[in-house]
Each structure stands twice: as structure tokens, then as C-alpha cells.
From TrEMBL:
Name of this protein: Glucose 1-dehydrogenase
Enzyme class, broadest EC rank: oxidoreductase
PANTHER family, sorted: 3-OXOACYL-[ACYL-CARRIER-PROTEIN] REDUCTASE, SHORT-CHAIN DEHYDROGENASES/REDUCTASES FAMILY MEMBER
Enzyme Commission numbers on file: 1.1.1.47
GO molecular function: glucose 1-dehydrogenase [NAD(P)+] activity
Repeat in keyword set: no
Swiss-Prot/TrEMBL keywords: Oxidoreductase
Length: 255
């Protein structure tokens, strides 16, 4: 049983790995034995994260990549394959948030959110799946959100809702088509975690008070509380689990 969650010898990609949840996930993979390619637009921050991963005794490859640009995605995937020789795990985590009602969102802002949160998953998966199919093995994990299945009473997140709901549907579609190739596709749906994207605005006293009153757990998520879900989906423990989105939300989606 203990070996089910072992990632020794695996190669993982984590996008959006220059801060926040991406850093936590990259380190979680490394602690379980995986070597990790970390992708983001901010290379200076990636190099710092790479050193932290290497301090855990694993190899880390920082790759500057904007996941909305296909040429950069192709170059990044080829760089990873040339370095490690394979890709076992793809963590599609890159994302941006946005506040705005459907009647007020500018088209450019809508496109920014959809391109990063949805098109980025498409492009990364497109070029990694080609490799995974050849090996008849792969683990793809998509970061979605509770906002993909619920709305927001206190502030409108319409572009973000649309993008994350689409990722949940894409996860199901990919899972159904790729299972025959030994590839599982699952998602994690966090609620509120403190990251560069959510802080300080969502962690201001007034905002946090509202969240804590709504959330059954009465608090936001803590660093490390996503690790169990991503390790499960990345490991052989989930060999017969695909098309699922697991909400790590303190019960937020149960109300």
C-alpha cells in the first residue's frame, strides 16, 4: 500500500509554478520522488522555486513559458523531453482570476481569462498527450475551482466561472477519450487558499469574515491541504479513477 503513492522515477510538469498553489504542488511531487519541470512566464521566480525543489533532493527544470502561446508550449514540451526523456504527469495549474459582471467585462479581459484558464489547458494537454499516447501512460490533473460549479453572490466572477466550468467539462471529455491509452484525467477544485492571486484582497478582514461564515469549515484552506489530492491523482493509487473533479473546499460546495 505504501508504494501506491510513490512517484520515484516519474517526471511531472507543473504550469503556473512561479507562486502559490503551483509551487506547493511542485514541491509535493518532489517530496514523493518525482523530478519536476516548472513552467511560468516569470523565469526569475522559477529559478528560486527550482532551488527549493533541488533542496528536496530532486531535479527541477525551470522553463519560461506562456501557456496561451502554442509556439512557446511546443518549445517547452520539447525542452522537457530532451532533458528528462519522458513526461508522466501534467499538472495544468496556470490561471488568472477576474472580477466583473457579464454586462461590464471588456472583451480583452474576457479573452485574457479564457485564454489562460482554458486555452492554456488545451495547448499543454494537446502537446503532452501526443507523447503520453505513444507510451500508453499518463496522468493529467487540471486545476479548476469551486467557482466552476457555483456562482458568487457577493461579487460577480463571470469570466472566471465560465473558464473553470469549462475546465471541468473538458476534464470529463478528455478522460472519456484518453482512458483507452492508459491516460487518466482528473481535476482538483480548490476554494479559498492564500496565494499571490487571492491575497491581499480576499484575505482582508471583511472579505475573510464573509467567506468564513459561508464555508462549513469556517476557514480558508491551508498550505499543504491540496497535496493529498494531487498525489493521489498523479500516482498509481488512482489507476482506475478518471474524469473526476475533487473539491478541496472545507465543504463549500456541499451547501
Amino acid at each position: 500500500m505504501s508504494n501506491l503513492f510513490d512517484l520515484t522515477g516519474k517526471v511531472a510538469i507543473v504550469t503556473g509554478a512561479s507562486s502559490g498553489i503551483g509551487v506547493q504542488i511542485a514541491k509535493a511531487f518532489a517530496r514523493q520522488g518525482a523530478n519536476v519541470a516548472i513552467l511560468a512566464r516569470r523565469y526569475d521566480k522559477l529559478t528560486k522555486v527550482a532551488k527549493e525543489i533541488e533542496a528536496l533532493g530532486r531535479e527541477a527544470l525551470p522553463v519560461k513559458c506562456d501557456v496561451t502561446i502554442e509556439k512557446q508550449v511546443i518549445t517547452a514540451v520539447n525542452t522537457i523531453l530532451n532533458t528528462f526523456g519522458k513526461i508522466d504527469i501534467l499538472m495544468n495549474n496556470a490561471g488568472v482570476d477576474s472580477v466583473g459582471s457579464i454586462d461590464l467585462i471588456e472583451e480583452a479581459e474576457w479573452n485574457r481569462v479564457i485564454d489562460t484558464n482554458l486555452k492554456g489547458v488545451f495547448l499543454m494537454s494537446k502537446h503532452v498527450v501526443k507523447h503520453m499516447k505513444k507510451r500508453n501512460y499518463g496522468k493529467i490533473i487540471n486545476t479548476t475551482s469551486v467557482c466552476g460549479v457555483i456562482g458568487g453572490k457577493y461579487e460577480p466572477l463571470h469570466a472566471y466561472n465560465a473558464s473553470k466550468g469549462a475546465v471541468i467539462s473538458l476534464t470529463k471529455g478528455m478522460a472519456a477519450s484518453l482512458a483507452r491509452y492508459g491516460i487518466t484525467v482528473n481535476g482538483i477544485g480548490p476554494s479559498l487558499f492564500e496565494t499571490e492571486m487571492t491575497s491581499p484582497e480576499l484575505f482582508e478582514e471583511s472579505s475573510l469574515k464573509i467567506y468564513n461564515e459561508i464555508c462549513p469549515a469556517g476557514r480558508p484552506g491551508n498550505a499543504g491541504e491540496l497535496d493529498g489530492a494531487v498525489i493521489y491523482f498523479a500516482s498509481d493509487a488512482s489507476s482506475y479513477t478518471t474524469g473526476q473533479t475533487l473539491f478541496i473546499d472545507g465543504g463549500f460546495t456541499s451547501i
